[in-house]
Structures are given as C-alpha cells and as structure tokens.
C-alpha cells in the first residue's frame, strides 16, 4: 500500500445533547486512505459518515467531540487541533471539502474570479493574475467555459455551481478531497457528469479522495478502496474488488443486493428492513444485529472487532460470523430467489 494520507485509528466521536445525554455517532472506527487513493465510505443516512468527514477538517458541530483514538493526516495527529490550527494548516490547503449542497459555500455577492483572488491572497504567494489563470484552468478541468470566471454564483445552474465548488476545492492543490454526498442534490444526468469529472481528476492531479455516499454502486464505480459503516460502527473495509466480490459483513451483502447489478439483471432488489439506530449509549453490541437475518445471541454480547477475510489483512469485516457469511448468504439469497420464483409461478 502507498503512504497513508489519512488514518483513523480506533476513533470515537460523540455529540452532547440537552439534558446531559449524548449521541455516540462513531465508535472505534479505523480505516486508512493511501496516497492517490479514492476511498469510498458508504452507509445509510445516520450511520456517522458526515461526522467522520467533519472531524477531519475540524468541522464537527459545536457539541461534537472526538473522545478517543487518533486521526492522523500525513502522520501528524490532528484530532486535538484548534479551529485556528485547522484553518492555518489543513482546510483547503491540505484537505478540501465538496459539500452536499454547494449553495452556501460560495459568496453570492462576489465574482468567482474575485473569490479565487481572495483565496490565493490568504493561502498562497500567487499574484492576482496567476490566481485568475489558475481558476480559468480549473474551469477547463470541470468543463465550464473559461469566459464565465467573472460571473457571480447565482448566474450558474445547480450543477454548474457544484462543478465550481469542485474547481475551488482543487484550487490550492490539496492532497485530500472530501466529497460528502456530492451529487445527492442533483439529477441523475448531472450526477453522472460530476462523478465523471471527479474520476478524471485522478489522471491529472496527485490527489486522494474520501467519497461519502449512501449508494454502494457509486463507490464500486468510482473508488479503489472502501469502508461500509452501520450505526456508528465499521462493518467492512477493503479494496472495492474485495468487498464487491467477497462481501463478508451481512450489511455489505444486503446493501449490495439493494442496488441493481449488471451481473444479475433479473435479481430482485433486497430491502433492508428498519433503520440504523440512534445511539444514546455507547453500543456494546453489533448495531446491525436487529436488522440482520443471521444474528445470534452472541451478536448482542459485545461490539464486534475486525476479522481478517480469507487471510488478506487489507480486507476486514466487523462480524463474528464473517467466516461463515459466504455460505450463509448463498443459502439466504438462493432461498429468497426460490421464494420469488414460487410467487411468480403462482401468479401466472
Ligand atoms: N449536532 C448533532 N447533535 C446530536 N446528534 C447529532 C449531531 N449531528 C449528527 N448527529 C447524530 O449523529 C449520528 C450520525 O450522523 P451523521 O454523521 O450525520 O450520519 P450520516 O452522514 O451517515 O447520515 C446520527 O444519529 C445523527 O442524528
Ligand atoms: Mg451525512
């Protein structure tokens, strides 16, 4: 594996709530993103994905706090950085964030070229002209006519604004881009286009990506490595090929079956009943157990630790039954296909 850019080492994050309570949004999460690696983090809404993204740039909500573990960026621990340290050393310069909605991240009353000049003034030695030239070049990268760099944000459509944000996120040549559901607010055609641009960046820039989404097929198509999260816990991590071909956590298996797969065009899409829990206490059990077709009593008796899959240390599943999952899943999926066939026959 390449040099690590970002390491999460046993990180727990909680939010204090009114009345002295707490939400344990992330519990003992571990993963590593290497140089030039596109890493996808996937899970349904409420799993803790944005909390992870926010913690990397010091952007946790006021009531949020990293309570244990280490977050290392290029080998330096940053979990205890102050807002000032994050702004000086990390934000934009080293790590840029493409937020879910671009609406609030551009200054509405400032020309885009002026925003680039401001950014360059604060963070670089570039002259005004160099700043404008760089923005022009980046507009080329994201497919917006260069002549539009002197426009105001409101003159752009939603999709163009989102691409403008991508251009700005690249402006200071960061080592890591965090894209938190970058296309969720866009229509399908625009989504594809944006993902194509993000993907193409890999060829032109030496950049790593933390791509966050609820759609596992987006990760399969655009990333090299990935992690699946459920209810504030890690479920599975590994290369995209490992998790695609040999998923070993029940949640990864069901999530994969919940999206269309060209390999099985006739397959029924699985529905995962229920929701990830809101964790008012630190979970000392598997948070997927209540939704899992294969849960046993033991799943409620401790938070699962990572199990190495097939002797491959880069592929891990946080499930005590990981080594049985291949056969269990096969039986389950065959059984549900049979049930569908029987149903279809009786309806003919
Ligand atoms: N400021 C906050 N205060 C209290 N709870 C929060 C706050 N922000 C997020 N949460 C809770 O933390 C959990 C994880 O949220 P989040 O990281 O936004 O998940 P995701 O991005 O996967 O949808 C959820 O249960 C959410 O309700
Ligand atoms: Mg989120």
TrEMBL record:
Q: Does the keyword Membrane apply?
A: yes
Q: Where in the cell is it found?
A: Cell membrane
Q: A single Gene Ontology molecular function, please?
A: ATP hydrolysis activity
The record ties this protein, via Pfam families, to: ABC_tran, oligo_HPY
**In its keyword annotation, does this UniProt entry include Kinase?**
no
Organism equals: Salinigranum rubrum
Q: Name a single GO biological process.
A: peptide transport
Keyword annotations of the record: ATP-binding, Cell membrane, Membrane, Nucleotide-binding, Transport
Q: GO cellular component terms? A: plasma membrane
Protein name in the entry: ABC transporter ATP-binding protein
Record membrane topology? Peripheral membrane protein
InterPro entries given in the database record: AAA+_ATPase, ABC_Ni/Peptide_Import, ABC_transporter-like_ATP-bd, Oligopep_ABC_C, P-loop_NTPase
Superkingdom as given in the UniProt entry: Archaea
Q: Which Gene3D superfamilies match?
A: P-loop containing nucleotide triphosphate hydrolases (3.40.50.300)
Q: Where is each ABC transporter domain found?
A: 6-256
């Amino acid at each position: 594996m390449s040099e690590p850019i970002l390491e999460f080492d046993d990180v727990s994050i909680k939010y204090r709530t009114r009345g002295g309570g707490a939400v344990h949004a992330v519990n003992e999460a571990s993963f590593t993103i290497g140089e030039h690696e596109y890493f996808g983090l996937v899970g349904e809404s409420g799993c803790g994905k944005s909390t992870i993204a926010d913690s990397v740039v010091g952007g946790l909500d006021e009531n949020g706090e990293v309570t244990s573990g280490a977050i290392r960026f290029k080998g330096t621990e940053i979990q205890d950085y102050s807002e000032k340290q994050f702004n000086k050393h990390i934000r934009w310069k080293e790590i840029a964030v493409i937020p879910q909605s671009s609406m609030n991240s551009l200054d509405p009353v400032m020309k885009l070229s002026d925003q680039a000049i401001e950014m360059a003034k604060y963070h670089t030695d570039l002259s005004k002209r160099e700043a404008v030239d760089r923005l022009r070049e980046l507009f080329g990268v994201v497919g917006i006519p260069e002549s539009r760099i002197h426009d105001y944000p409101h003159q752009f459509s939603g999709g163009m604004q989102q691409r403008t944000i991508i251009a700005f996120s690249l402006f200071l040549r960061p080592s890591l881009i965090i894209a938190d559901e970058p296309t969720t607010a866009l229509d399908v055609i625009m989504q594809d286009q944006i993902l194509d641009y993000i993907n193409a960046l890999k060829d032109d820039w030496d950049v790593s990506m933390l791509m966050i989404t609820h759609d596992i097929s987006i990760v399969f198509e655009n990333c090299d490595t990935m992690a699946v999260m459920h209810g504030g816990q890690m479920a599975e991590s590994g290369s995209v090929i490992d998790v695609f071909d040999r998923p070993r956590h029940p949640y990864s298996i069901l999530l994969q079956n919940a999206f269309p797969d060209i390999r099985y065009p006739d397959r029924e899409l699985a529905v995962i009943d229920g929701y990830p829990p809101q964790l008012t206490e630190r979970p000392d059990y598997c948070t997927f157990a209540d939704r899992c077709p294969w849960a046993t009593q033991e799943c409620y008796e401790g938070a699962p630790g990572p199990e190495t899959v097939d002797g491959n240390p880069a592929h891990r599943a946080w499930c005590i039954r990981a080594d049985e999952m291949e056969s269990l899943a096969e039986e389950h999926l065959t059984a549900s296909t049979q049930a569908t066939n029987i149903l279809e026959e009786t309806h003919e």
